[in-house]
Give the backbone structure.
Amino acid sequence: MTLPLIILDFVLMTAAFVMIFFYAPIDAVMGPTQKIFYIHLPGALASFFSTFILFLASLKYLVKPSPQVDRLAWAAADTAWLFCTLTLITGMLWARQAWMVWWTWDPRLTSFLVLWCVLSLYHVLRRSLPPGSLQSRLAAVFGLIGFLDVPLVFLCIYWWQSLHPAVITSREIRIDISMFHTLIIAVLAVLGLAILLIHLRVKLLTMESRLSELIRIAGDTQDLSDGRKK
Amino acid sequence: MNETTYSDIDGGKPWVQVKNVSVQLGFRHVLRDISFDLFAGRILTILGPNAAGKTTLLRTLAGAIAPDQGHIYYNTRDFAPSTIGWVGHQSFLYDELTVKENLRFWADLQNVKNPARRIEELLVQMGLRLFADERIDILSFGMARRVSICRAILSNPGILLLDEAFSGLDQTGVGFLLKLIHTYKNSNAAVVLTCHQVPLGLGVATDLMVLYKGKSILSGPADRFDLQAIGKDYLSYAQSQAGGK
Amino acid sequence: MFRFLRNIYTLLAKDWRSEIRSLQILPPAIVLALAAIVLFYFSKIDFSHSPTAWAAILWIVSLLALVVILDRALVTDTRNAVLEALLAAPVTPNQFLFAKLLFTGSMLMGLQVIVLLSLTQMMNLTISSPMGSIFLTLTLTDLGLIAMGLLCSLIAQFSRHRGAFLAGFLWPVALPLVLLAMMAIDDPARSENIWLILAGFDIVLLGISPGLLKVIAGK
């Protein structure tokens, strides 16, 4: 499954970059800087997607613990953190150009920063505990609590007056149609990348745990042969 | 505790029935397919090297861990705290509170009748009367161990679980505990104990179990086995018996 | 029901007895809160233009104090594995959480009253909102904060970082609640809706806490 995923995502990524630089027109107001948007929005969606996977895997682990689900949660958290960081950085670049500041305490930005903190702490928690059930349990609980923040991110948009541009609303699409096409392909490419990264990370974690299991079995065998020698 | 059944106490039925219990901690199988019956007035000694799963088995019996597979049936009216007394590796006591306050706290939670009298009685029995108003954090390990034994038997439990209860106790303490175990046996309660002092464990045992890597490799009434051979090297004995079968 | 209340009383009495004897939570929390207020006073920031500056100071100080309170609130129970023995038999996770909620909640609210008094008396800040709505906002926010905080505190107890990282665990997840509380104080016209959201959060958090406590503390 790995190779087809890599090929598919490579094709989508290439298409997305070609469309971003050669197909989509340059924005009349913001100029070429607007092209950040084709990475920024898909990145944000990919981080939400990965966080959602983290939430589902944490929930599943709490209901029925299994090493596979635990690895999926960790892989999703890694990927979510990566895309969250990417979104924050591209967002800051955008903000510098659009609003002349690197950062503004807009509710959506603030909430995203909170999500980034939660995801970072998830890693701190994972690394502060020895591998095993305690680590998985606590991480699952924290993944669940951390996810409760995400609905508030959305609530904030409706509740607070937001500086953030509402590019896509339910009523109309306020961008050029070629820009929209590019955005769709970019979203698919980045989501594909998120899925690929989660998949590869799960594989890596599985191999790590198999390796430690083999080392343990080797130790046990050693014990037995030592016992026989006695 | 999942799937616990309750029925009336009946001399013929076992107090505790452990059926095919497996426990996984993390992704490690700590107990595999353990089954045994525990009858009233019996003392089960569990022997095993470090990391064999003894403590996990006792924690499972105490209800702190739910088995992943298999069931534990308690033949009592109610799986109430009063049916199980548990002495663990740690003391289960609050350092900031005094001996008496700790015991009173647990007595209130366990709904012990006439707690003040019961606590006084236990303090005398375990040689702790002079320490009644001392805080736990200034007591020696052995004294704290005696207090945790008092805590476990506050409500006269029908089942007593002793996890390495002899360790840290001086000769008088060991004497108190042995007397206690015999009293329990005579009053038709069941005792499960783990210990590394093999002669001590064998001395009180009516039933034996040897755990090795989470599996029960020897189990049954003590008089069925060669206790001398077990006393010398229980692991080799158990392995030879298992091989013989 | 009688048993439930009796167990909660026993747990609460034990917590207060232990606190009165060791004085490990309240004095440091109060000193920290007062130190923060003194710093705000001497920072020479002009708070007179901002009608809700008191609320911002109150929440900053509350969050600081909350870390101290929560850090110590579960230490006695996890030391010597008392919590494991408690949950194995005589006490349900509900009872334990409810008792801890009352213990830490009463401390936090007491501290917030002290902070409010200090702000009006020492810093001459005027509080225009009605006291009833302030206390309702405080109660609803404190409930959610403590329910979440107790879980974070328990997680911190088991992790290697312990109390040092409690602040890290607590603040990002506590921030949305505190922001909602600030909004409720800032804009009285919206406060009823925000109370509903806060209450919703409290119900969700209190609902899942006992189950999560059992997961964290045991198997």
In short: Chain C has nine helices and no strands. The radius of gyration of chain C is 18 Å.
